[in-house]
Design brief:
The complex is a heterodimer of chains A (about 170) and B (about 130). With about 170 residues, chain A is of the alpha/beta class. Chain A is built from 4 helices and 7 strands, in the order ααβββββαβαβ. In chain A, a hairpin with a 3-residue loop joins strand 4 and strand 5 (about 105-110). Chain A starts with about 20 loop residues before the first helix and ends with a strand. Chain B is of the alpha/beta class. Helix content of chain B is about 35%, strand content about 20%. Chain B has helices spanning about 1-20, 75-85, 100-115, and strands at about 20, 45-55, 60-65, 70, 90-95, 120-125. Chain B has a 5-stranded mixed β-sheet with strand order 4-3-2-5-6, with helices on one face. The N and C termini of chain B lie far apart (about 40 Å). The chains are: A alpha/beta (about 170), B alpha/beta (about 130). Chains A and B meet through helix 2, strand 1, strand 2 and helix 4 of A and helix 1, strand 1, strand 5, helix 3 and strand 6 of B. Strand 1 (about 55-60) of chain A pairs antiparallel with strand 1 of chain B.
């Protein structure tokens, strides 16, 4: 009668027999065949994806400045018109892009557009009647650069004014 | 082979995370970059995209309505009136090149306003001014 051999019945000091690993069993069964993962299709797909993202990507992030344009007239307004802050673009050879700005009644000397935000903030802070709801009119001639006009529009929003308008200079 | 696959995956992950997919409507335009930019990233539900491209110092700007190139502001007016009837709440996304003269953009703004579309988003480039 034979006894099953198990670790508990093995003589003391004898090495415990281990079951062969999957890899070894696979090699025994398929002698001559190597076990390798074929990476080529994966690399193909990854390179295709990489190429797609390289071609289709845009890195500049765009933002939007909200603006309201006047709707076609629907009747008389019941709102009492407020005195606007008039920002005018004036040709100035020394200024960036050849244009500077003035603010009617407050700053008649040409001011760089980059300083407009501080000027408008000071008016809002110090002058009664020119709070955040005061309308700001941007009056620019046709030759003024669009970049400068957007910069002035943005400066008025940054100074805390909500109602900024592009006004026809004619 | 393993380092190359590692680098390729890293590159792929970088592009997937940092990039925005280009749209056929968003043509190459140098956008204004104001100081202390107040603009924000938005995705309006109903929108009409207008591109104004710079074509040189004395050239008329290239006018595009979505992906369509238009010949005149009259054609733009016709299309915008149609949009105003079908989607009165539509917002107009204006991508105008920073090198353009204000007069060109003012004429387009006048056309948008006369069509009855009052909500305009002026597109700028986020990031520091150069």
């Amino acid at each position: 009668m034979s006894m099953p051999i198990s670790p508990t019945h093995a003589p003391p000091g004898a090495a415990t027999p281990r079951p062969p690993s999957f890899h070894r069993r696979y090699r025994r069964r398929h002698r001559g065949l190597s076990l390798t993962l074929n990476l080529t299709p994966m690399i193909d797909v990854v390179f295709l994806l990489l190429f797609f993202f390289l071609v289709a990507s845009r890195f500049g992030v765009e933002g939007m400045l909200p603006a309201r344009l006047p709707a076609p007239s629907t009747g008389l307004s019941t709102e009492v018109p407020r005195t606007p802050l008039r920002v005018r673009f004036v040709a100035d050879a020394g200024a960036n892009a050849g244009f500077a700005v003035t603010v009617d009644h407050f700053h008649s000397a040409p001011l760089p557009i980059s300083s407009l935000r501080d000027e408008l903030s000071a008016i809002r802070r110090d002058k009664p009647g020119f709070d955040a709801d005061a309308p700001v009119h941007l009056i620019a001639p046709d030759e003024a650069p669009w970049d400068g006009v957007v910069n002035a529009y943005n400066a008025a929003l940054a100074a805390g004014y909500h109602k900024v308008f592009f006004v026809d200079s004619k | 082979m393993t380092p190359m696959i590692d680098v390729t995956f890293l590159l792929l992950f970088f592009f997937m995370v940092t990039s925005h997919i280009a749209s056929i409507e968003k043509v190459a335009v140098e956008l204004p970059r104001p100081d202390h930019n107040q603009s924000s990233e938005r995705k309006p539900e109903e929108k009409v995209l207008i591109n104004l491209q710079y074509t040189g110092e004395n050239g008329e700007p290239g006018l595009m309505f979505g992906s369509l190139t238009l010949d005149s502001t009259a054609e733009l007016s016709e299309r915008l009136h149609r949009v105003a009837q079908e989607q009165p709440q539509a917002e107009v996304i204006l991508r105008a090149d920073r090198r353009l003269a204000y007069g060109h953009v003012r004429r387009v703004l006048a056309v948008i306003s006369s069509a009855g579309l009052g909500r305009v988003q002026v597109v700028t480039e986020l990031g520091p001014r150069t």
